[in-house]
Amino acid sequence: MSFKKLLVSFLLLLGSHLINAQETKQKPVTIEVNLNVEKGSAKPIWAWFGYDEPNYTYMKDGKKLLTEISQLSKIPVYVRAHSMLVTGDGVAALKWGSTNVYTEDKKGNPVYDWTVVDKIFDTYIERGMRPIAQIGFMPEALSCKPQPYRHFWKPGDNYNDIYTGWAYPPNDYKKFAELVFQWVKHSIERYGKEEVETWYWELWNEPNIGYWKGTTEEYIKLYDYSADAVKRALPTAKIGGPEVTGPNWDVSAKFFKTFLDHVVGGKNYVTGKTGSPLDFITFHAKGNPKVVDGIVRMDMGTQLRDIDKGFEIVASYPALKNLPIIIGESDPEGCAACSEDLHPQNAYRNGTMYSAYTAASFARKHELADARGVNLLGAVTWAFEFEDQPWFRGFRDLTTNGVDKPVLNVFRMFGMMDGNRVEVKQDLAYNFEKLKKESVRGERDINAFATKNVEEAAIMVWNYHDDNKIVAPSPVNLQLNGLSAKRVQVHHYRIDQEHSNAYEVWKKMGSPQKPTEEQIAVLESAGQLQTLTSPRWMNVENGQIQLNFALPAQGVSLLKIIW
């Protein structure tokens, strides 16, 4: 090739790089926060977690993670786990757990063994946590179709293979109710009445899909028997349901409404009276990521539409509208144990895309509840840990082999926010209505969630997009109005590629599957929440301060303002 042609090729290549650089250069974004305009209580709706495999609770990394979760919150964290009544040897496996709480002798008499259940709940209580006590699933001796019972699912297998004998209705509703009664009674004896009164008892999980192999009416019948048993053992206990998933699906909405219709005006299967006790309402909401043109594309809009539909359904029942709502599972998609190596759409889980999605979506849950006038109490993040799995395999978890992922640091940030929510001016690219309708497919969602109490304010700022593309950082001008102090101290915490991110550090190590003790120590340190800069003092002028910083794509900042 001649020198002239080489020069032309070089200039074309240089021009294309300049064009790409111009295309990725982000415009400045101004975010205004007004501390004088309060939007309601900053309920810690984030302080709720759950997982499929209850036996991980008391294993090495499970106990370590539960300790960390309990320490990041100023209030008790609630924990929800499946399979609390499943028959088995108590050995953990993916999508499986067991406690062997109920068996029968040769004459068909109940044999209760609380050993494993106590081991699980003791782990919570010792850390100041509280259970969402899930009544389920069906013990083998009570299942109307017990065989096959134990499954051996692994990533890549047919998901429907997990729905075995534990998913069926009981062969004797009264025996099942007696099991529930004895469980609540035993809990009171072990932990005390005042403690158990703080728990939430619920029946089953996602009974509108494979987790329940009975009919809607059979679920309602089991609910009546279970609720009656709970209230007989402890009249002040809280019982709720139905934990349906996907309220925006027609079939799920029908199940949800049929259940609520029964609670309000149906004939109770146990008492014969009208209605059933219901102290809180539960449903699930998930997103739907895909791989598009070789990159992960999230779908927050799908999750928010599910949440909004659930709120709409509850709000349509005047007698129930003010009851607490717990979104029993609230996640970017549905299968925590479906690993990235076999499901490429789940490649968001190890890095900062998961943390940015979490920050942006939790802020909008508050706004959706405000708009529908309902009482959102909690949104359960269905992510925990998977013991003895490959490092950063890409499960939907908070840690890997005891090392924290970036997403856990978002919850550390939330743990530093309390008091009341305050106004963030909504003249930015997305408000909750637009995001619910369109998801984040155009401009980037750069926005904030802000709180204040008597002596400090906290502003969480995120730079999120559904497409996980690498683009230039966005300049942010944060204007904080309504300060009464003359001088404030500013702390700036950050999650991005360089901060609070053990995954990026692990990759720079060469992605070792057998890291040394020294490497593990480095990873554990990298997984903690880190500051972007040292704390600094600022003078307040006319009740205002301005903070200017660059926020990387899929990054999250927390500005803590102390006076």
TrEMBL record:
Record bears the keyword Signal: yes
Keyword Signal (UniProt): yes
Gene Ontology biological process terms, A to Z: carbohydrate metabolic process
Signal peptide range: 1-21
InterPro entries named among the record's database cross-references: GH, GH39_cat, Glyco_hydro_39, Glycosyl_Hydrolase_39
Residues in coiled coil: none
Active site positions: 206 (proton donor)
Keywords tagged on the record: Glycosidase, Hydrolase, Signal
Domain Glycosyl hydrolases family 39 N-terminal catalytic: 31-526
Superkingdom, taxonomy of origin: Bacteria
One Pfam short name: Glyco_hydro_39
One of the record's GO molecular function terms: hydrolase activity, hydrolyzing O-glycosyl compounds
Entries under SUPFAM superfamilies matching the protein: (Trans)glycosidases (SSF51445), Glycosyl hydrolase domain (SSF51011)
Family under the similarity heading: Belongs to the glycosyl hydrolase 39 family.
Protein name: Xylan 1,4-beta-xylosidase
Origin species: Dyadobacter psychrophilus
Origin organism lineage: Bacteria, Pseudomonadati, Bacteroidota, Cytophagia, Cytophagales
